[in-house]
Design goal:
By secondary structure, this protein is of the alpha+beta class. Helix content is about 15%, strand content about 30%. The protein has a nine-stranded antiparallel sheet with strand order 1-9-8-7-6-5-4-3-2.
């Protein structure tokens, strides 16, 4: 009987991260979580108007296997704004080096085109880019130091929670209404 319990316990920890799903955050914990992420600032960036777009090419890099399914066909090359083709050769440390187990990441030089706004995001002073059109449009917002802060796709804002050493701690999926106020919040821990 003890062996059966031990086997069950050990087996439950061997699930791969891709089997994990974001968990629903209880309504009484949502305000504290969103306040810690400065959601009011994030909301103001999403509601901002951006213009004067210029084309840039990014390296197409899929996400490692420890990532959940991302809304909007998100590519992990967008975790760092310096993954444009112009800057890859000049960068001493690419985003590839920041991910342990990134050997399953697509390392080819396939590219995709985005539009980068010449207007920085309000309150954050980071770059803003977009790809896709109309209802399928994805708008990505960066922090001033170049790592992604959040992105919006359809009725979902995905917030990236970073640690002090620029390690990704969690992803927060916020389903929003038309005014960008949260309806449901899910969290995915790494």
């Amino acid at each position: 009987m003890k062996r059966l319990i031990l086997f069950f316990l050990l087996g439950s920890f061997s699930l791969s991260a891709t089997d994990k799903e974001p968990s629903l955050v209880s309504k009484n914990k949502v305000p504290k979580l969103l306040k810690s992420l400065a959601y009011a600032t994030i909301r103001s960036t999403v509601l901002g108007k951006y213009n004067d777009w210029e084309k840039k090419e990014y390296k197409l890099q899929t996400c490692p296997s420890n990532f959940p399914e991302m809304p909007g066909g998100f590519f992990c090359s967008l975790l760092d704004e310096n993954q444009t083709l112009d800057s890859i050769d000049n960068s001493s440390e690419s985003i590839d080096a920041k991910w342990e187990g990134s050997d399953d990441v697509n390392q080819s030089l396939d590219v995709f085109e985005v539009l980068v706004s010449k207007t920085k995001s309000p309150n954050m002073s980071g770059k803003v880019l977009r790809y896709g059109e109309g209802y399928e449009e994805t708008i990505v917002f960066f922090k001033p130091k170049g790592i992604i802060s959040h992105y919006k796709y359809k009725d979902t804002i995905v917030i990236f929670k970073w640690g002090n050493q620029n390690e990704l701690l969690s992803l927060i999926f916020v389903k929003v209404n038309r005014d960008m106020f949260p309806e449901t919040v899910k969290e995915y821990l790494f």
